[in-house]
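Chromosome partition protein Smc, pasting as requested.
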Amino acid sequence: MKKKNIQKIALIMALSSTFIINGADKAIADESVYKDSTIENPSGEKDTQAKTYEQAKENYDKAKDNLDKEEKNLDQSQKDYENSKEEEKNLEKENKNLEEENKKAKEDLDSTVEDYKSQKEKDLENAKNEKEIAEKDLKEKEEKTNKAKEDLDKADEEEKNASADFEKEKEKNPDAEKSLKDAENKKKEAEEKQVQAQKDLEEKSESLKQEEEKLASLNKDQENLQTKLNTANEELSKIKDEEKKISNEIDEIKKSIGEVSEDSQSYKDLQNKLGEKEQELIKIKENIETSESDKKSIEDKISKLQKDIENLKKENEEFSKKLDDLNKEKSQKEESKTEKENKLNADNTKIENLSKENENLQKTIDEEKKNIENLNNVKTEKENSINGKTAEKTELETNLKSKKEELKKLEESLKTVSEEEKQKAKEQWDKGSVGFFEQNGSTKAVKVFTDLPNNDRAKKIGQEYLAANKNMSPDDSRSLENMKKAIEALKVVNEKRQKDGGIDGRKLSVLKISDFDMAVAQANANYSANKIEHAGIHQPPFENLHWGGSDKGKEAIEGWWDQEKILFDYLRTKGCKSREEMGYYIALHSDEIFKDTGISKPFQQIGHYTNLVDDLMWGQFKFGDSNTSGYAIRPGMYGFVQSLQLNYTKDNEAHSIEEYEKKFNDYCENLQNLMKGIKTPSKEELAKIEQLKKEIADLEKQIADKNSEIEKENKELQAINQNIENKEKANKEKINKLEENKKEIQKLEEEKKALESEINNLTAEINELDAQIANHIASNKEYEKKLKALENDLANTKIELEENDKEIKKLEDSKTKAEEEKNNLQNQILNLNEKRKTLENNLASKEKELEDKKSEENSKNEEINKLNEETNKLNENIENTKKNISDLKNKKDEAAKALAEASEDLKLANELLEQKNQEFESYSMAKENLAKAKRKVKAMKKVFEDLKKSKEDAENNLKLKNENLAKAEADFEIAQNIDVNNPQSYENIEEINKKAKAKENAQIALDKAKENLDRQKEKTSKLKDEFDEAKKRYAMALADFNFAQKDLERFMAVNINLDLDGGDLNGVLGNVLIKGQRNTKYKLPKPMKKGFKFLYWKNGDKIYYPNSEIYLEDNINLKAYWQELKETKEKVQRPKQKIKTKDNQSKIKIESPSTNNPKTGVGNKISIILTSSLSGLLYVLLRKRK
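Structure tokens follow.
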């Protein structure tokens, strides 16, 4: 049975028992069900009580059926919710794993690129070293080849000389060759015999060795078999010991099971201790309630004292405020006084310095005036002679200078751009598209990068979206270079739409561009640069995204249009009539699509194409033809990302692509010219320049004519004028400085007088404030005493509260300890049960283990028998091998004897050959010398040929190394230019392509997993809502059921009045009222009475004997009848517990449980209480375990 169902049964048991004992009108249910639900009678108890038993029974049955139904719904809803949560947890784990894989894939790609670059660098270095070695090797081979050629020529000459000497010896000894030949043949025959004998001996020795090795191997096998046999016997003995041990363990386990049974004394002791601990907890809780009440009184007192202190302080606020104001005013005046005193000291110092400076200036001015006067006399004499000519020339020069300055300013303003203008142009350029949108007045477009719309997607990723567009970077989609590429790509899109048309050749609208759509494309591209994901912040427009190695729109169109149209047309042939149907078909037939079209699973999409042809949700609904568009391109983690935006609305100012491109290009060209320092002049400005140039040329001609006449005199006058001018200028500066100093001194003197007056006034005011503060403080001494008394009282009361809190904490600790001890006792009881169960499991395990050991014993006996058979066979094989060894030893001795004889024959043949060689020594020497010379020539020739070949090999090797070096240099250059964001840079490098593909696949898998997780979270949330709703419905159904059950019980109860007639029933005297249940059987009890024998019960004329059963249909009154007995020994009577009733008669009320069990009767009160307690305990234990 499921854990949840067990819990519900325990709850219903506790609920039923509560109704029986206490007449409860409320039900306790599973906390998880009612946590968020309110349980109440939906229809109102007073208005829905049944009038008859049949009506109550019908209501009860309906409520029971509804409760069963809602319970099933609740169980299913909870199961679905928990399964969904588990799936969500698995998906989160999968996401985490995929993120790690994605990270690892990126690291692998980066590592592979670095390793590749490092390897190519090493290859280049190795190629250089190998080339150097090859060059050195070739040089050595050339030297050796030349030396070998010299040695070969020398050996040829030696051979010719040896041949001539041998021919002379042949003439002297014509029979020498035959005699030597015969001796050599005999030696050869003897050598052959010796070789054969040696071979026979070695063969016999080898055979003997093999047999001996075989014997050793067989002996080793014999030892191994004996070891295995011994081991098997030992294991058999060990198995028998283990069987005995397991049997003993089984006996011990059976004994232990008896010690932890429910009838054991230890189990009963724990039950008794648990009851005592529960009583202790009740007393502790009562003490805590008393302490909490005391705490409330103390806290009320603290609150009152704090309020009194606040009121006292409030009464004193006016005093404090005035005192603060006086102190504040005094501080301000003291600060002002200090400031003015510092200013006064500074002024005195400044006056003194200026006075000294003026004395020196006046002395210098007087001396310069005399010098200027003398120069003016000289100047007057010179001016009289050249005055007229100089005046004319000066006028012409002044006019010329004015015209040139005017021309210069005009040309600089037109041709030379200021650094400030250049900087402004550069800053405007760096703002990218934002600057362009600002110039256009497109506030809505600019806000795309700074503000967020109010939608769920913006709330989810909005901050990440704005962060991606916060700062400009060289790669940013908003850069003007990237924007220019985007406009070109948009032209490709427009051309494709007009050329191919829409679905079934439908004519498509000509796209326009708006600043807003361009801004959305750029912001989205920045967001998606490093993740395979749509932003989805602004909709419309609708977006197509593409990641790849090219920044051209053509590549994106090939994927969005050409490839997806192939799939779109294919799916139409499969009968798909909407985009939704196509999506389902792709999900179910991915492998078939790949087989038929060659389009792999990650690229099986059609949404980009349907968006491009203004049929995004083809076959379902339509938004309208695209009116405006936007495009963005930038590099990122997966190459270049391209974002296309298509907008069917007419909310934004739009331009044709051509108009927009011209406007954009003019903007860019103007900024570029300004940054280069170029400004284009107007026609009016050009005409003015020409006029000024003409006037300047005329003035320059007039001045040239005058210069020849007054050149000498003008030079002399210029020198005098310059001298006077310098002196007057210097003197004028000194005079101006002197006047300025005098004015400054006068100003400082006036300021000094004012400061002294202000300082005196402030001193008097500060003294007055000190007196006011002292008087004010003296007037409020009584306040401090009252405040001190209240604060002391408050402190003492807080101490009292702390003591009370300590007492509460002590009681809480005692409560916690008692609860822990109670839980410990409950756990001990559970542990005993678990221990008993464990022992029973161990007993079954040991019995199984004993059975396995017996089976193992039988297997081991079979193994020992098999080993004995193998030993007998092996012994027979050993005897045969020993016989073979004996035979081979005899054959080896014979072969050794034959070898000795052959060796002796060879010795004799060698002695004969030596004798013949001595007889023809000069002949043999000449022959040997010739042979040596020939061998030397042959050897030298081989050396020369080998070295010649080696030299050719070295030349080929050097050629190869040069080729390798060129290839290594080319590979190194390619490696240095590898960019993981540009697949073209490594398109021919298999290992990097493989890692890049793995990285791409990892990212795709991660994105898909994230989508699955989002969908699963939505599903979980929905199932949770359904689960909460199911809990509420179940709570309502249970409340209805409890009400119907309670209402039914009103009709089910009947009274059984027992008149004991002086007897007692279960220790109770007087009359007894028993609550029974209608339409059930009731077994009549047997009362007792001292000195009497009970006969029967009587109701009117009907007689009922003890232990007989009566059918309860209505209230019944029964009287006991007795027969008096003869006097017997007095017996000890059981104590009787009396309960006084209203009529002062002894009466007991016994309630029976609400059940349909016909065997329930009197005396079950204890069973009812025990049932209630155990069911409550079961509920607590289940809650704790959960």
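Note for the archive: Confidence is low (pLDDT under 50) at residues 10-47, 1128-1173.
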